[in-house]
From TrEMBL:
Record-given protein name: Mucolipin extracytosolic domain-containing protein
GO CC entries: membrane
PANTHER family cross-referenced by the UniProt entry: MUCOLIPIN (PTHR12127), MUCOLIPIN-2 (PTHR12127:SF4)
InterPro entries linked to this entry: MCLN_ECD (IPR049134), Mucolipin (IPR039031)
Residue span, Mucolipin extracytosolic domain: 77-250
GO molecular function terms attached to this record: NAADP-sensitive calcium-release channel activity
Highest taxon of the lineage: Eukaryota
């Protein structure tokens, strides 16, 4: 009894009648079928909670959140750099209109314009703390404020007479630099600096190639405070090419190159306070 029901062998009898190889084959088929089921079918078949699916969804959420936070943080950095790049051009390029010409430069056409551009950049550097809207300061070395450096590149001595179509010049390039100390910049006007260093500023334009003014500034990006993050510190290496004329035509370009890097911030204390708007009744 129990072996045959209505003339049909029972399941127990069939399993006993099947060889072991057939049982293993059926078990493998069931496993393969279960393996290719979707999470809903697996739950219906064996009431197994699809925890792997939940783990994958959690990974997707975590990675997406990290990408969003990284993108927002990087957006603050990019906007800070772009804003300062535009601000530096307005601060140190005389007559900058906000529109760049070829190769992000603007042009001057007379010798006096070249001198005016150099003295303007020096004067703006001296008054930076009084005219800048941003959190900018001078770069300091171990002893004191580093000041600024002016370098000129020119061909070696020679003669040039366009009226007689005569040219006698040594194409070897020589570089001459002066360093203006902060104490001198604080006590002297830009015009006096030109007179003191008259031998340097006495340009021979027919052999002059380039005049560069370089200095370092530091700034603090406070935008990150609103995102509940520590502020970022930046160092700016500014190079103002007040004269750049490799072709020696009637037009020279003025270019400002800015490089950035992030030194360590020395944060002493940040106080957080809840602002409350009150309205008088």
């Amino acid at each position: 009894p129990g072996w045959i029901r209505n003339g049909v062998p029972s399941l127990r009898l069939r399993m006993m009648a099947q060889p072991d190889s057939d049982l293993e084959e059926d078990a493998l088929k069931e496993d393969l079928k279960f393996y290719f089921m979707n999470p809903c079918e697996k739950y219906r078949a064996r009431r197994q909670i699809p925890w792997k699916l939940g783990l994958q969804i959690l990974k997707i959420v975590m990675v997406t959140t990290q990408l969003i936070l990284f993108g927002l943080s990087n957006q603050l950095v990019v906007s800070f750099k772009e804003e300062n790049t535009i601000a530096f051009k307005h601060l140190f390029l005389k007559g900058y209109s906000g529109v760049d010409e070829d190769d992000y430069s603007c042009s001057v056409y007379t010798q006096q314009d070249v001198y005016d551009s150099i003295l303007f950049a020096i004067n703006q550097y001296c008054q930076l703390k009084n005219i800048s809207l941003g959190t900018l300061g001078y770069e300091q070395d171990e002893d004191d404020v580093s000041g600024l450096q002016i370098c000129k590149q020119q061909y070696k001595k020679g003669t040039m007479l366009p009226s007689n179509a005569t040219l006698n010049i040594d194409i070897a390039i020589e570089t001459d630099c002066i360093h203006l100390e902060p104490q001198m910049l604080a006590t002297k006007r830009s015009g006096d600096l030109k007179m003191i260093n008259s031998s340097f500023f006495n340009f021979e334009f027919y052999r002059l190639i380039q005049v560069e003014i370089s200095f370092q500034l530091k700034g603090i990006d406070l935008q990150t405070i609103h995102a509940r993050e520590l502020p970022d510190c930046y160092a700016f290496q500014n190079t103002v090419s007040a004269f750049q004329m490799y072709t020696h035509g009637n037009k020279c370009s003025r270019v400002q190159n800015i490089s950035y890097w992030c030194p360590d911030c020395k944060i002493e204390e940040i106080q957080c306070a809840l602002s409350i708007n009150t309205r008088a009744k």
